[in-house]
Amino acid sequence: MLLISFIISVFALLFAGYLVFWIKKQDMGTTKMQDIYEAIKKGANAFLKRQYKTIGIMAVVLALVLYGVYALNGKPEAGLQVSLAFLLGAFLSGFSGLVGMWISVRSNIRTASAAQTSLSKALTIALRAGAVSGITIVAMSLIGITGLYYIYSFLGYTAIEIPALLVGFGFGASLVALFAQLGGGIYTKAADVGADLVGKVEAGIPEDDARNPAVVADLVGDNVGDCAGRGADLFESTAAENIGAMILGVALFPHFGINGIIFPLVIRGFGLLAAVIGVMSAKAKETDDPLKALNKGYFITSALATIAFYFVTMEMLNSVLMFYAGLVGIVASIVFVFITQYYTEHKYRPVQSIADASKTGHATNIIAGLSVGFECTAATVVTISAALLASFKLGAMTGFEHGGLYGTAVATMGMLATAAYILAMDTFGPITDNAGGIVEMSGASEEVRMRTDQLDSAGNTTKALTKGYAMGSAALAAFLLFSAYLTEAGITIVDLAKVEVFVAALIGAMLIFFFSGLTMRAVGKAAGKIVEEVRRQFKADPGLMAGTSKPDYAACVDITTKAALREMIMPGLLAVVVPILVGVFLKAEAMAGLIMVGTIAGLLLATLMNNAGGAWDNAKKYIEMGNLGGKGSDAHKAAVTGDTVGDPFKDTVGPSLHVLVKLLGTLSLALVALFL
Questions:
Q1: Sorting pLDDT into bands at 50, 70 and 90, what band is 221?
Q2: In the chain, fewer beta carbons within 10 Å around the N or the C end?
Q3: Contact, 127 vs 424, CB < 8 A?
Q4: Distance CA 425, CA 230 (A)
Q5: How many other CB atoms are there within 10 angstroms of residue 233's CB atom?
């Protein structure tokens, strides 16, 4: 069965290659479009080159630390295996981000060109480009872990020994994902906020107006943040969660044998196959709502993944109760999508309440947005709790020792069954956003702009929905990794009444808020530099506003690049160093307290950030649709302020917290020997 999963992964990569070949054959539009495309490509390449150089140095240092920890504990051979797995995970996570950026940059111009004649064709290009990223990332994660499994087997390690050696792979993926998401998130929101504050608010020019010196930096940010950063994030998610489930599978070895260990890899392979079919089935007519076509592909993928889940579970685990546990995860993923939809779409009460509050000013808009963010945590917690309780009870009903915990692992696998298609929908958003920017900057007709606006609107929705999905999967994965850590550390009870454990738990909660504060400040500082530069260019050259001079786009790109790379270091190091210090000085049980409380705080704050940010964004769009006075009204001005505040919430801090809570789990698993 493991070989079948490997073959499916290779097939998926070949399919992604076919999509790349198909996309590259599509028209690249006018000369002016191509000039804008070249500027975006150059900026994105320059940023990732400098970012990955910084991350690479840190990865090598941590690999040496990992080896040292195992060597000092009398396990130099195991240390070598874990360290090499760490480097492979780090490399593939970085490569996943590169794939996401590479395909998005090359597809946005082709989407813009297709929009000149056909909405349907533009949608197809954008979704297939997103699929290249999603399918490649999940496939590489599977190939990486499966390949290491076969190598370790060849070296003489038994099936129950291998999962512990794979934790380095997950830690490497988590580390790169954190810095990629941080750096990309700071870049994209600094450029976006800086461009909006001077362009839309002060100068009164439209979004993506070619006269704005920061507009190219903003478009670059969509690629390095929403595509490269999210690509590394999703690679990390699939890798960490697969490894955590494999570790729990070791405990069920007396009952399921090797099948319990490799089950996560096999089921993920069939999920890939479902995503391939879902992508090819998502087609829209010219008169259709683009979101309808995207949802069609999602539901087909979900249905096929559910069918595959049943047959694989019955074949490998021979337990209908475990299938029900997986079904709980699949249903939970759909529920999370609808929760996010309710709190972020303009047709529902939360967004409309923010828009209505905008009529009385900027302050009331902010108050309303924060209230929505705080409120939405309730539905999230109820869903997570129900999913964990139901899957645990179903697993426990098998009568096997540790069956309950394995039930939660199977539920996590169910939730991630559609991960490849979800990532395709997520990447669809920034591709269509960029396409709209290219269309506007190139001076295309209003008809073309209307088509890209339709796609962009659908993309905004998919980005919000996938953040909800990512947050939900992070919750289940965090519990999975926490359980795996307890298993590896030999801990049965985490006693918060012990002073060391209580202090560590406090530090875990503090880490979440301090990390978020540093990240928000980083966006603000970087955005401030962009504001100064845009103001300087407008003041120095009056011809910019008149449209007779061309802005210095490269200056804003360079400023944003330097600021983002500088500002990502401190929160990233904090996320790694603080847990290690707690584990070393307060030991394993205290580390468990940090993970437990840090995870809870991180998930709640990420939920607030994601949904409040999305609600602010769509409240602005709701007013721009002609409601409450429309564009230029006082309500619209207040809504722009809310959207500006919400940008780093939903695109920088929220996604980074998803990675952070999983990093706590993978880091603790990789360094558990140091904490005993």
A1: confident
A2: C
A3: yes
A4: 12
A5: 32
DSSP class of residue 19 equals H
CB 332 within 8 A of CB 472: yes
Contact assessment for residue 371 and residue 351, using Cβ atoms and an 8 Å cutoff: no
**Distance between CA atoms of 374 and 156, rounded to whole angstroms?**
52
In terms of phi and psi (left: phi > 0; alpha: psi -120 to 50; beta: otherwise), the region of 307 is alpha
* Domain of residue 597, residue span: 2-675
Distance CA 11, CA 13 (A): 5
CA distance 354 to 367: 8
Q: What is the pLDDT of residues 97-145, one digit of tens each?
A: 888 888 888 898 899 888 888 888 888 899 899 899 889 988 998 999 9
562's tokens = 């330097």
Q: Which has the closest alpha carbon to 534: 434, 651, 522, 526?
A: 526
Question: Residues near 284 by Cβ (< 8 Å), separated by ≥ 6?
Answer: 119, 120, 123, 124, 290, 292, 293
Please state, in angstroms and rounded to a whole number, the distance separating the CA atoms of residues 52 and 83: 19
For residue 112, give Cα distances in angstroms to 28, 41, 99, 438, 504: 8, 15, 20, 7, 51
Phi-psi region for residue 157, left (φ > 0), alpha (ψ -120 to 50) or beta?
A: beta
User: Which pLDDT score is estimated for 23?
Assistant: 92
The amino acid that residue 173 corresponds to is A
In terms of Cβ atoms closer than 10 Å to its own Cβ (0-12, 13-18, 19+), residue 500 is: middle
Which amino acid makes up residue 32? Answer: K
Residue 53 to residue 604: CA distance in whole angstroms: 33
- Cα separation, 272 vs 15, in Å, equals 11
The pairs formed by 482-485 with CB atoms below 8 angstroms and a separation of 24 or more are 482/592, 482/595, 482/596, 482/599, 482/665, 483/244, 483/248, 483/405, 483/408, 483/409, 484/243, 484/244, 484/247, 484/248, 484/665, 484/669, 485/591, 485/592, 485/595, 485/665, 485/668, 485/669, 485/672
Q: What are the Cα distances from residue 128, in Å, to 24, 27, 281, 450?
A: 11, 15, 11, 21
| CA–CA gap between residue 423 and residue 353 (Å, rounded) | 30
Structure tokens belonging to residue 71: 């060597």
Largest CA distance in the chain: 77
What residues contact residue 445 under an 8 Å CB cut-off, 6+ apart? none
Question: Is 0.85 topped by the overall pTM?
Answer: yes
Nearby residues of 106 by Cβ (< 8 Å), 6 or more positions away: 23, 24, 41, 129
CA 264 to chain centre: 20
The count of domains in the chain is 1
| CA–CA dist 384, 474 (Å, integer) | 10
Distance CA 89, CA 93 (A): 6
Which parts of 317-445 fold into alpha helices (H)? 320-344, 349-357, 362-396, 403-415, 419-441
| Tens digit of each residue's pLDDT (9 = 90 or more) over 527-571 | 888 889 888 888 888 888 887 888 888 888 888 888 888 888 888
Among 668, 652, 647, 666, CA closest to 606: 652
> Between helices 76-114 and 31-72, what is the axis angle to 10°?
170
Which of the residue ranges 100-114, 192-206, 494-508 would you say has the lowest mean pLDDT? Answer: 192-206
